[in-house]
């Protein structure tokens, strides 16, 4: 039931607020984060995933309650619907720019059901009064994914390149594992303390969290490589062996995409033979 108070709102640093907004997204998350950067009466919104009128109204009230009188823009980290569905409604309320990376623009327009001309290409930096927000293009989770860096508060907004509660999925058609590893390196080298992810709580040691996440992913890739060195596997065989029973069945398609992305990266960086078994009518992968 809607009680008009569904958004968890928390101040993270002097200029940054996190709003955890209920959205249709992937387990284990049930919320997608919007962030508000404030400089006096000026504000910038990062991501807006819910088009529910109650959520929009609540978010607008929260933004007003912290003293923001002018929202100068909405920045989207990437095009996925759980980060963008609320954007058109907020844009019409504030009459502001919506910043989207060109590589994500076509998909973003589709997800939001708006004309691509409503978007502004993400600049290298956004000024909020006298405060600078640096924008970096960092593909991985999607091709046009961006990070925003508020150096003044040592905060980096990482969208779905990290999660506060678990790992993220990286797979076709949007994701690329090699790019993703580079994205995690970039977070570790950013000089920022706090990473603000698209889902879950903020990560208080951005460098450590991104390093651990990269380790987890590369260990998984090594595990896949050593399995296919010993014998041939189908994609479904690998999914069943590595994931079935450890994650909800409805999330297995996501695991499958991530394994596809690992296999593609093994193909690019090591050695992979793909064969087709005509009896079984299946592709097999072997190193
Ligand atoms: Zn996403």
Summed up, what is this model?
The chain is of the alpha/beta class and 287 residues long. It has eight helices and 14 strands.
Give the helix/strand layout.
Elements (H helix, E strand, L loop, with lengths): L7 E4 L4 E7 L8 E9 L2 E5 L6 H13 L4 E6 L5 H4 L2 H8 L2 E4 L1 H11 L6 E3 L3 E4 L2 E7 L8 E5 L4 E5 L17 H12 L5 E4 L8 H25 L4 H8 L9 H18 L3 E5 L4 E5 L1
Parallel strand pairs: 4-5, 5-6, 6-7, 11-12
Antiparallel strand pairs: 1-2, 2-3, 3-4, 8-9, 9-10, 10-11, 13-14
This protein binds zinc ion (ZN).
Zinc ion binds next to loops.
Q: Could you please describe the fold and organization of this structure?
A:
With 287 residues, the protein is an alpha/beta fold. 34% of the residues lie in helices and 25% in strands. It has eight helices and 14 strands. It has a seven-stranded mixed β-sheet. β9 (131-137) and β10 (146-150) form a beta hairpin. The chain is elongated and about 65 Å long. Bound molecules: zinc ion (ZN). Zinc ion binds next to loops. Zinc ion (ZN) binds next to loops.
């Amino acid at each position: 039931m809607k009680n008009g108070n569904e958004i968890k709102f928390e101040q993270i640093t002097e200029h940054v607020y996190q709003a955890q907004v209920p959205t249709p997204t992937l387990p284990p998350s049930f919320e997608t984060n919007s962030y508000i950067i404030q400089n006096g009466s000026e504000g910038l919104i990062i991501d807006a995933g819910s088009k529910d009128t109650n959520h929009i109204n609540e978010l607008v009230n929260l933004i007003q309650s912290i003293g923001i009188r002018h929202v100068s823009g909405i920045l989207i980290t990437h095009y996925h619907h759980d980060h963008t569905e609320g954007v058109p409604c907020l844009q019409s309320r504030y009459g502001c720019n919506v910043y989207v990376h060109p590589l994500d623009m076509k998909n973003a327009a589709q997800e939001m059901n708006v004309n691509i001309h409503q978007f502004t290409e993400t600049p290298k930096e956004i000024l909020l009064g006298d405060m600078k927000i640096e924008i970096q293009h960092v593909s991985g989770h999607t091709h046009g994914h961006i990070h925003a860096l508020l150096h003044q508060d040592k905060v980096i907004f990482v969208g779905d390149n990290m999660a506060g509660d678990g790992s993220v999925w990286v797979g076709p058609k949007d994701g690329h594992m090699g790019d993703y590893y580079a994205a995690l390196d970039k977070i570790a080298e950013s000089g920022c303390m706090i990473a603000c992810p698209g889902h879950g709580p903020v990560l208080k040691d951005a460098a450590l969290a991104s390093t651990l996440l990269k380790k987890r992913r590369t260990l998984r890739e090594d595990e896949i490589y050593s399995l296919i060195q010993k014998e041939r596997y189908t994609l479904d065989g690998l999914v069943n062996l590595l994931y079935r029973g450890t994650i909800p069945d409805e999330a297995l398609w996501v695991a499958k995409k991530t394994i596809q992305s690992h296999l593609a990266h093994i193909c690019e960086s090591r050695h992979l033979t793909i064969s087709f078994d005509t009896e079984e009518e299946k592709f097999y992968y072997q190193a």
